[in-house]
Amino acid sequence: MAFSTLSSPALPLLFHYQKPKLSFLTSNIQTPFDYFPQLSTLNPKHHHKMSRTSSIKVVSDLGIVERAIQLVQSSPPTWQSALLSNIIIFTVGSPLLVTGLSASGIGAAFLLGTLTWRAFGFSGFLLVATYFVIGTAATKVKMAQKEAQGVAEKRKGRRGPGSVIGSSAAGCVCVFLSINGVGGEAFSRLWVLAFVASFCTKLSDTVSSEIGKAYGKTTYLVTTFKVVPRGTEGAVSAEGTLAGLLASVLLASVGYLTGQTNVPGAAICVIAAQIANFGESLIGASLQEKEGFRWLNNDVVNVINVSLGSILAVLMQKIILQS
């Protein structure tokens, strides 16, 4: 009887009995993080999402930096790479810039730097930067003594846009000639040579003048060799002349080491700079500040000086090539 009961047709139903599923309950259960979003940083799910977002942001930032580096290293240089490079360098170097330039002078220098990078890349920019650093350092030498003698540059040697433009006028012409490919490949190296020569000329002039004012024992007027006070227009000294020669050699060496010119080209830049500076001294002694030539101020003389240095370098190179 018991056996027959166990063998009843309902028995299989008991063996196939399944526990009720509670998924419909667990799926609707809400955690405290759902009620209090401010605790979501403790929620593993939210933390995972935040980690992914942070990772994406880091990767994105790295991508921006990588693209910026690639842009700066563009070869040949582009306007975008020139602008970005100068923004970075002028931002980092602002403490040094304000010691040698006024606010408007920095603006003019930024324009010069952008044009230079676009035409000649980092090597051209480095040449101009070297000129600025050495020229500023020479201007600051014995500043108190120069101020007491009344021969120091205005604003503690901080030069304005007129000085920047006057000093770089010939270099900017070379930049535009190079960017526009004037003369083709045959003249491209000449524009670079003229560019280097212009800044060698101006640096030599600046250093010879500032060192001559500070250390020149005897100062002669270049037209008559009459002894005159330090700082007289057109005056030269042995100390200043030697310092100016060394400065032009140093900057020409920078041009050579950065591949802008070869050894003969560097020598041409030094020689052209000395001839141009002698011509500038002649102009200063005979015409500058004289009646009828009041317009011939330092900025105008700077333009003449650097232009003469560039032109002489090109002519000397052409003569050498033809011979």
From TrEMBL:
Keyword Transmembrane set for record: yes
Keywords: Membrane, Transmembrane, Transmembrane helix
Pfam families to which the protein is assigned, alphabetical: DUF92
Ranges in a coiled coil: none
Membrane topology note: Multi-pass membrane protein
InterPro entries xrefs: DUF92_TMEM19 (IPR002794)
Compartment(s) of residence: Membrane
Family: Belongs to the TMEM19 family.
Name of this chain's protein: Protein VTE6, chloroplastic
Originating organism: Anisodus acutangulus
